[in-house]
Amino acid sequence: MSSVQEMFKRVEVNPEVKQWEIDILLYELLDRLMDQYAPILDDFQESLDKLEELAIDNPPPEFLVTISDRKTELLNLRRIMTQQREISRETDAGRGAVHGPVVTDLFPGRS
């Protein structure tokens, strides 16, 4: 939740942020979340490249366990991203709960 923590710090440093509309706040949070995926995906790519080399050269006995672990990590990442995409869609369509605890904490009095 470092994206949310960044927003808390930003509000503390710059009180003008409290004047933002909820849609701008949501955009800022989602933008920070998306920025955090780039290094995760880069690490995944590097890990998969190494696994591919091992598969071709000389796979160690624990190779299948390693592949299974990476698959589990990828499925977890997909689950998280799917949930975030759904929240974004619902919010964009006006059905989502934009006014959750984060907004309430950042913007007391807005609900």
From TrEMBL:
GO cellular component: membrane
UniProt xrefs under InterPro entries: CorA_cytoplasmic_dom, MgTranspt_CorA/ZnTranspt_ZntB
Annotated GO MF terms: metal ion transmembrane transporter activity
Pfam families listed in its UniProt record: CorA (PF01544)
Disordered: annotated segments: 86-111
Protein name from the UniProt record: Mg2+ and Co2+ transporter CorA
Originating species: Tunturiibacter gelidiferens
